[in-house]
Amino acid sequence: MGRIRRIPELSCLAQIQAAQPDQDPNAPVPLHAPTGAPQDPVLGSVDGKLIYLSDLTRVTNTLPEQMRNLPFDQIMPVLLDRMIDHEALTMTARRAGLEKQPDIQRDMRAAADLVLERAWLAQVTPPKVTEAAIAARYNRQYVNRPPTDEVRARHILVGTEAEANTVLDELKGGADFAAVARVVSKDPDGKQGGDLGFFRRDQVWPGFADTAFSLQPGQIAPKPVHNEFGWHIIKVEERRLVGPPTLSEVRDQIREDLTAQAVREAIADARSQMIIHKFNLDGSEIETTPRMTRAGSDR
User: Fold this and answer.
1) How much is the pTM?
2) How many Å apart are CA 197 and CA 208, to the nearest integer?
3) Residue 153: CA atoms inside 13 Å, Cβ hemisphere, count?
C-alpha cells in the first residue's frame, strides 16, 4: 500500500543505566537502610554501595510494557543482577579515571542535560493532556461530523502504459482481477490480489482517489492511472459510509496528538525566552531571534 498511500529494546542494562543518576564517587556510603527500612529493604550491595528496593522499583518503570506486566518477584532477580552489573562496571570505570577524561565529561554533561529536558517536559505537558482536554478535542473533531465515504479497492501496478492496456484487455475478457494481480502486479499488495482494504479519499494520492471514488462496486476503471511508480488498474469492490469513531476508539490517538502539541508549545515557550543565533558553515548568520522577556523579569 506504500505506493498508494500518502507519504505522511533496549537491554535491561541499558535501561538501568538510563534510569540511574550519576553519583559522586566521594559521597559517603550508607551503612544501613534509611528510615522506614521495612518499606525499602536493602536487596544487594556492590563494594559497600547498597541497592534498595526503591532502586529496583524505579527501574521497572523503564522496562518494556510486556516486562512491566510481569509479577515483580519474577523480574526482581534479573533486575538485581543487571543493577549489580551496572554498579560494578561504573565503579570499575571510575577507578580507572574515565570520568576525568574530557570527552567522557562532555558525554556525562549531555546525559544530565537530557535528563533535565525530559524532566521539564514531564512536568509541563501532563496538565495539557487531561481527560477533559481529550474530550474537548474529540468534540471538536468528531461530534456532529457527517459520515465519511470509503471504498474498498484492488489495484494492479505495472511498469508501462502498454502493459496496463494489455492487462485491461485480459480483464475485459473475463480474467479474475485478484488472480491477475498476484501474477503481474509490481506492488507488494499484489500478493493479496491487489486488495487495498477500505480507505478514505484523503488517505490516497489525488489521482488514485479521483478514479476510485468515481466507480461503483464491481467496476474497473476504463483507463489506467499513472504516477511515479507506474500504471495502476483499479477495481472497486465495496463502498460504505462510516460514522465518526467513538471516544474510546480514538482516545489514545488524541492523547498522543495533545502530548505532541504540548511538547511543541513547551519548546516554543523555551525558545522565546532565549537569545538564539544560527550560523552557516562559513560563519554568516542565518537567523536572529528577537529577545523575549517574561513579565516582571529582567531577562
Assistant:
1) 0.61
2) 14
3) 30
